[in-house]
Amino acid sequence: MKNILIGLFSFSLFCNADYLDYVYQNRAPTSNSFGQTGLIQTPSAEIKGENSIFLTLNKNDIYKFATLTVSPFDWMEASYFYYQPEDFIWGGLKGKYLDKGFNVKVNYKPNNKLLPTNVALGLDDFAGTGFFSREYIVGTYDLNSFKFTLGLGWGKYATENAFSNPFSKIITQLDTRPNPNLDIWEVGRPSFNQWFRGDIGLFGGFEIFLPFSKGLKLKVENDPFNYFDFSANFRSYSSPLLREKDSELNIGISFPINDFITSEISFIKGNSVNLSFVIGKTFNKSPRKKNFNPIIEKRYADEDKEREFYNNLLYNLSKNSLYLQTAHIDNKKLDLTIDNAKFTNSIQSTSRAAYFASKTAELSDLSLETINVSTIMLGNEMHIINYDVADLKISNVLPAPVIQKRIIVSSPSSVKEYKKHEFQPSVKFPIFFNNIKPDLRTHVGSPERFIYEGLGLSFQSEVQLSRNLLFNLDIGHSFDDDFDEKNPRPASDLPHVRTEIISYLQETDNYLTTAKFDYFWSPKPQMFFKTSIGIFEMMYAGYGMEYLYKPFKSNFLVGFELYDVKRRTFDQNFDLLDYRVQTGHMNFTYYFENSGITLKTSYGKYLAKDKGFTFDLSRRSSNGFEAGFYFSLTDVPAEIFGEGSFDKGFYFEIPYDLFSNIFSKETFPFSYKPLTRDGGQKLNNSNDLISLYKNDTKSKILEGANGFLD
User: Fold this and answer.
1) Does 636 lie in the same domain as 573?
2) CA nearest neighbour of 361 among 326, 332, 395
3) Diameter of the chain measured on Cα atoms
4) Count of domains observed in the chain
5) pLDDT, tens digit, for every residue of 304-328?
6) Could you report how far apart the first and last alpha carbons of the chain are, in Å?
7) Among the listed residues 71, 235, 91, 135, the one whose alpha carbon sits nearest the alpha carbon of residue 652
């Protein structure tokens, strides 16, 4: 009887989940007007999920708002916003003022039925002008078809209905909140002296999932804000007509248009319609399975069975975008080296190569027991993965935890060991990799406008002149742009190493971005060098070198780069200006394998000849999605650096594999910095050693075990 009751209870839970999914087709968390996971104007304690990217476009009578929100973890979301009020004046024109800022929220899921399902702590506009500066602690109860949120807020949450800060009884300094420092060079620094200080206000509301309505949700909340303070700081020219508040109640609906777009419409402060569109996706799935269905052919026959095997293996691998470099059979052991142009997962590429080798050997009546597959990049042997032939069965693929124990991943004893192999097919150089694609050029971070943009066409070519020597070329033509609408004045007291970039965008429709030679070599395993000469980027040309030490069994990398460069002329041909600088940095990188976080730090001399540190923190998930942020602190005083006070930005990278049915090493990269300044600026040079070799460690290779025979 006990087992029957347990079974019925488990079945009821399963049915309940299916029933809820049927009645409420979309129960995913929604966004508020400011791009945060939340209600209408206030946040909830939820987060949309790990590897989420969402763009929120919002408009009402008071302002336009645009927010980009990224969640690198399932417990954290960070957002960057642009704000354009209708009643502010900039350059003598109303409605042209533009402001920006950062928000961050972290949450926790208590395992206690009496506590909220999610609890979160957030900082809004924590390093800006303070128009939206506020902090909060919030809890959300998720009751399947109903969510209830209640929170405590500081800063802009504390209006005429606020009460004293209860934490000031413990720390007396929390009783008062200092005014923000609005000196232009202070804007952009975190306002530590304001956080969680002063009076506290309450906010909250609820969200109801409407049944059988394709994801329609009803939202109701208490509006805690005084709009003459919130988003205006009591500016004298704030419009009473736009900002007057007639009701404390906001009400709205949320409706998913499709898997990528959600519309939000609400009625706020009793007198204003508020409209938002949320565009984005949570990339929480592994890359699409590509159905490994190999076809092995015997194209060549030879009395020498080993030679027959080598030639057929060369054919079968090449047909599947795996390029055999060398091979050697010794008794029942096969050593082979490969290169590939489309697989990012080493276990995926090498297990496929091992499978092709085992089946091709059977066609030549050769018996193999072990296969060692080595990967070569730019002439250097990177790592070796040992497979037992008995494990290479696509009819019964072993799970990732078993594969991690069955295979042996090691570093080669010599970077040129493969040159001793018996079979070495000739490689005809040069090898050309050409690409023609649309070129969207942008300039962001201007106080006059969010973005200036142009559309053109670029021709990109990578020519491999030998195993170790590359030539990169990138030329383009602009068909249409609005860069001429931007005033090119740099407004900087430092050498104009970046602030004149708009002049490069304005000067010519035909541009040469890159024309350089890179030579790579490795005198011994785990040590890598690179020398470069030519045009590195839009603004700089010169020569230099890099060094990287990367222990295979460790998670750290250390090295340096040193370049001697000169500024290019604005027309982007081969002429150079007089400005010259020797720039270089010492680099240290560490990978925390349990969390997927990578910390990169560097110290050195920047393009404006300032010296200091750069810190970069990123997180890469198992499906290849990566998001991170960085900032640089140099010896340039804030008042000389200018608005923003120090260089900072964020970035993310989405693999094409997440969308495509074919494998690809290509990614969609995006990076953004709030302002273009001259302090803390590094040289942009592709094919840097850290980017090329950072994933070639034992721990990162084993993380890809789910790619075995995939």
Assistant:
1) yes
2) 332
3) 94
4) 3
5) 999 999 999 999 999 988 999 999 9
6) 45
7) 71
For the cut 50, the answer to whether the pLDDT of residue 374 exceeds it is yes
Whether residue 1 is contained in a domain is answered as no
Q: In this structure, what DSSP letter does residue 238 have?
A: -
Whether omega for the bond prior to residue 190 falls within 30 degrees of 0, making it cis, is no
Q: Using DSSP bridges, classify how beta strands 249-256 and 217-222 pair: parallel, antiparallel or unpaired.
A: antiparallel
Contacts of 561 by beta carbon, 8 Å cutoff, 6+ apart: 544, 545, 546, 547, 584, 585, 587, 685, 688, 689
Q: Is 692 helix (H, G, I), strand (E, B) or coil?
A: helix
The pair of three-digit structure tokens given for residue 672, joined into one six-digit string: 């953004």
**Per-residue DSSP letter, 93:** E
Nearest-angstrom CA–CA distance, 349 and 353: 6
Q: Any idea which of 110-124, 353-367, 490-504, 608-622 has the lowest mean pLDDT?
A: 490-504
Domain presence at residue 289: no
Burial 347-382 (b: 16+ CB within 10 A, else e): bbbbbbbbbbbbbbbebbebebebbbbbbbbbbbbb
DSSP-assigned beta bridge partners for residue 152? 137, 202
Residue range 56-92, pLDDT digits in tens = 999 999 999 999 999 988 899 999 999 999 999 887 8
Of 585, 515, 582, the C-alpha closest to 547 is: 585
How far apart CA 248 and CA 223 sit, in angstroms, is 5
Do residues 80 and 674 lie in contact, with contact meaning Cβ atoms separated by under 8 Å?
yes
Close Cβ partners of 515 (under 8 Å, ≥ 6 residues apart): 472, 473, 474, 534, 535
pTM value is 0.85
Count how many Cα atoms sit within 13 Å of the Cα of residue 704 in the half-sphere of its side chain: 24
**Separation between Cα atoms, residue 579 and residue 286, nearest integer Å:** 48
Q: Kindly state whether residues 490 and 539 are assigned to the same domain.
A: yes
Alpha carbon distance 456, 433 (integer Å): 20
Q: Which helix (H) or strand (E) holds 120?
A: strand 118-124
SS3 606: coil
Strands (E), 182-321: 201-209, 217-222, 249-256, 261-268, 272-282
Are residue 92 and residue 64 in the same domain, yes or no?
yes
Burial of 417 per CB tally in 10 Å (0-12, 13-18, 19+): middle
Confidence of residue 677 (pLDDT cuts 50, 70, 90): confident
Angle between helices 346-363 and 305-319 (to 10 degrees): 140
Do residue 203 and residue 83 come from a single domain? Answer: yes
Find the CATH number of the domain harbouring 483: 2.40.160
Per the listing, tokens 């999920």 go with 49
Q: Domain residues for 233?
A: 26-282
**How deeply is 637 buried, as exposed, middle or buried, from its count of CB atoms within 10 A (0-12, 13-18, 19+)?**
exposed
Quick check: 36 and 56 in contact, CB under 8 A? no
Average pLDDT of the residues of the chain: 89
Q: What is the pLDDT of residue 435?
A: 92
